[in-house]
Amino acid sequence: MEENKFKEEQSSSMENVDSKSQGNSVEKDDTKSPNTSDPKSSLKNTSDILNTVKSQFVSNKKIVGIVGVFIVAVIAFILFSSRPTKLSKYFDVTFNGYDGHGMLNYNHEVVIEEISQAAIKKAGFSKDEIDAFESGNSQMVDTKKMAKYTAIMNNLKFNFDKVSDLKNGDKVTLTVSCKGNNCPFVNETKEYTVNGLDEMQEITLEDLEKEYPITFTGYNGFGSVKFDSTVYTISTAANQTLKNDDTIKVKITEGTLNTLANDGKKLKEEATSFEKKVTGLPEITDVVGLNDILNKTDILMQSKTKPEDGWFDKTTYVTEKQQDYILFNASDSKDSEGKLSLLTIYKITKTVTPDSDSSRTAETTTYFTYFGYIKLTVSEGKIIQKDMSYHEEYTSTEWENFDSIDADLKKDGYAPISIAQ
Fold it and tell me: Of the candidates 399, 317, 396, which has an alpha carbon nearest to the alpha carbon of residue 351?
């Protein structure tokens, strides 16, 4: 009976194994697993493996391709960013002023900063070194890097061929040159066309003189020219001797022409010089007090030619007035117009008569000399007669004839004058 029970259990176990086997077979069919006992199934299995490998390869190939493109892009960026570039792209060039006298301007500080940053990058500064350098602590930068930076800055040059006196339509060329292998910028030239300059306003010489007048001071025959020497160039050799209707040559200074140009003005017909006639000088005889001085001169002369009694002789003088002479020197003082000198030439006949008991005969000599007053202040057309003794003028010099004394006085600037009594 136990034996039969064993057989029944064994039979039941086998049915369970078959049942599991069948179950496993169904799962393989569901998953479409290959059957190794079937040749057709073996071929199908191999094809699936190949397809799987191929699929994995294709998938990995896409990943590799993406990575490769990224690497190439990085390399290209590095190479491109390290290549020398054009400095001109940082220039913002403008023109201002007036046509024919325009000025070129550009963003100098920006350009220099771009150059410096490019040199810093090329020299390989670290972030800490950049911070130190920009804080003014260049000693904290590696010496080799600093030397490289300095070399780059020194080797880069740029300039414009013309920056001033520009007119609309002019061509201006920027030239950039850089030496050495480490230069971050290419050698290049770039041309700019001048435009936008304002038109010049034409003015006349009369307009110029209204703003910068030329005046004459003193008196007719003793006139001087006054002017702004920064505006005009005028010879002053004739000063103190100018008279009405004389002509002086006036040259406009280069600085004035430039100033006018900067203000958008230019002289009509581009005049740079002209002639001006002396006008408006009053007559010297209009000065009040001349007759008073002549009277004082005559008194002074008489005081110096009084008869003289000596031990053995007597000297007498006979005087004859010959000619009055005047000199005027204009002054820049606000308190006076200038200084006036008035002299009179006299013919003197001098006789020395010995005493009656002397065997000598009388001796007579004739000569010419002058008396007068000098350096008298003239204010508001009137002679200031003050402390006259300090202004007396006479001499012991004796001239043999009128012509010689006349010539000497004229040489000193005196002029003959006729003064109505």
Answer: 317
183 by Cβ neighbours in 10 Å (0-12 / 13-18 / 19+) ranks as buried
How far apart CA 295 and CA 305 sit, in angstroms, is 16
Check residue 47 and give left, alpha or beta (phi > 0: left; psi -120 to 50: alpha). alpha
Q: Which residues contact 270 (CB under 8 A, 6 or more apart)?
A: none
Strands 215-217 vs 273-277: parallel, antiparallel or unpaired = unpaired
The sign of the dihedral angle between the CA atoms of 288, 291, 294, 296 is negative
DSSP 141: S
The helix (run of H) or strand (run of E) holding residue 375 is strand 363-379
Provide the CB-side half-sphere exposure for 157 (13 A, CA).
7
For 183-242, write each residue's pLDDT tens digit: 999 999 999 999 999 999 999 999 999 999 999 999 999 999 999 999 999 999 989 899
- What are the residues whose beta carbons fall under 8 Å from the beta carbon of 7, sequence distance 6 or more? none
Tens-digit pLDDT profile for residues 256-307: 998 998 889 999 888 899 999 999 999 999 999 999 999 999 999 999 999 9
Q: Which two tokens stand for residue 95?
A: 């023109």
Can you give 175-186 as a three-state secondary structure string? Answer: EEEECCCCCCEC
Judged on CB neighbours under 10 Å (0-12, 13-18, 19+), 9 is exposed
Residues 6+ apart with CB under 8 A from 373: 293, 296, 297, 300, 341, 342, 388, 391, 392, 393
